[in-house]
Each structure stands twice: as structure tokens, then as C-alpha cells.
Design goal:
Elements (H helix, E strand, L loop, with lengths): L5 E5 L3 H13 L3 E5 L2 H7 L6 E6 L7 H10 L6 E5 L4 H9 L4 E4 L4 H17 L75
Parallel strand pairs: 1-2, 1-3, 3-4, 4-5
């Protein structure tokens, strides 16, 4: 985590937004809170380092729509989805779209803090693999745009054959793979009875 990394919290619920902001600040994170997707987009610059803690159900543009817009605009900020109305299909869709995790409200504070740390580490680690201005990055092998067979962003039109076939959009391991921490919507904290997401 760099010194200038910011955790952006976007939630239309004042109480939740303030509680999450207080929790993060008390644990040493720099935090900015926004009440809507529109407010976030109006003030966010893609060169800023950090991650986004994003509620799903909000008036206007909802959290899933904001996540899709950021991906379409090729903004690389890692996204953590939180929701009190989650279900398994929603969680799977969020993770497949590149979310670091999908966390149910009321959330476990330890899990949220650990996920924020992981998201900030991801933001720092992928560095040159993502142009924070929204453009394509240089490929890992250093082949530039002028290399034979290179397409947009310097990658071969046939793609990077070394990339895992099912690699997640955020560059991490697919759910259920890797070191086990990023296990998608089921995560490490699935309850013994299998009830994962409770509306409310």
C-alpha cells in the first residue's frame, strides 16, 4: 500500500457509509466517502491509487452498473462489493466482472479490513500492467506497439498465450484458485449451514 492510496467508500446509506469510513480510518487507511455513483465519478481521477468499496443498491446508477462502467472505461481501481441484498448469482456476477470480493451486510469487520488490504496490494502490484489513464498497458514481455503482430496496446492480436484461459479481469486467480484467500463469493467465511447471503 502506497502512502497516497485512498479507499473510496460509495454507499447511499449515511449510517453504513460513516461506519465503514470510521472503521477504515481507525485502522490507518485514508478514506473518502461518497453518497452515490454520480458523486464518485464527478470527483474520481483514474490516476489516483486505491480501491473502491461499493454498495450495490443505490438510487440512480447502482453499484453493479458503476463497476461495469469503470471496466468499460478501463479504469483499473480494484472493486469490493458490499450488499445487504446479495444472492449467489449477484455475487458470482460481481466476481466474474472483476470484483476482489463480494461481502454481505452486516459484514465482518476483520474480513472487510483484510479484503481492503488485499485490494490495495493488488492495485500496487499490477503497476505497469494497467495504464491508470484508461489505456492499455505494456505487455509483460516488454513487446511494444511496434512489435511484429502487436495489436492495440502492444499485445498480439492472438492474445497473450501465456495468460490462464480463465484468468479473472482484475488479474487475480479465478475464484477457488490461487492461495485460497480470493475464493470468490463463498470465500473463507461461508457459514457451516451453507447460508451465504441473507437479504436485509
Amino acid at each position: 500500500m502506497t502512502a497516497d492510496s485512498t479507499v473510496f467508500v460509495v454507499d447511499d446509506d449515511d449510517a453504513v457509509r460513516e461506519a465503514v469510513g470510521l472503521l477504515l480510518r481507525s485502522n490507518g487507511f485514508r478514506v473518502e466517502t461518497k453518497a452515490s455513483a454520480a458523486e464518485f465519478l464527478a470527483t474520481y481521477h483514474p490516476n489516483r491509487r486505491g480501491c473502491l468499496v461499493l454498495d450495490v443498491r443505490m438510487p440512480g446508477m447502482n453499484g453493479m452498473e458503476l463497476q461495469s462502467k469503470l471496466a468499460a472505461d478501463r479504469f483499473c481501481i480494484p472493486v469490493i462489493i458490499i450488499s445487504g441484498h446479495g444472492d449467489i448469482p449477484m455475487a458470482v456476477a460481481a466476481v466474474q466482472a472483476g470484483a476482489v470480493d463480494f461481502i454481505e451486510k452486516p459484514f465482518d469487520e476483520g474480513r472487510l479490513l483484510a479484503t481492503v488490504k488485499r485490494a490495495l496490494a493488488l492495485d500496487e502490484a499490477r503497476g505497469g500492467r494497467c495504464d491508470r489513464r484508461g489505456g492499455a498497458s505494456e505487455p509483460p514481455d516488454g513487446a511494444g506497439a511496434g512489435s511484429p503482430g502487436a495489436g492495440r496496446g502492444g499485445r498480439s492480436e492472438q492474445g497473450d498465450r501465456r495468460a490462464p484461459r480463465h484468468q479473472r479481469p482484475d488479474g487475480g486467480d479465478p475464484p477457488g484458485q490461487g492461495d485460497g484467500e480470493d475464493a470468490g463469493p463463498l470465500g473463507r467465511r461461508a457459514r457451516p449451514d451453507g447460508a451465504l447471503y441473507q437479504a436485509g
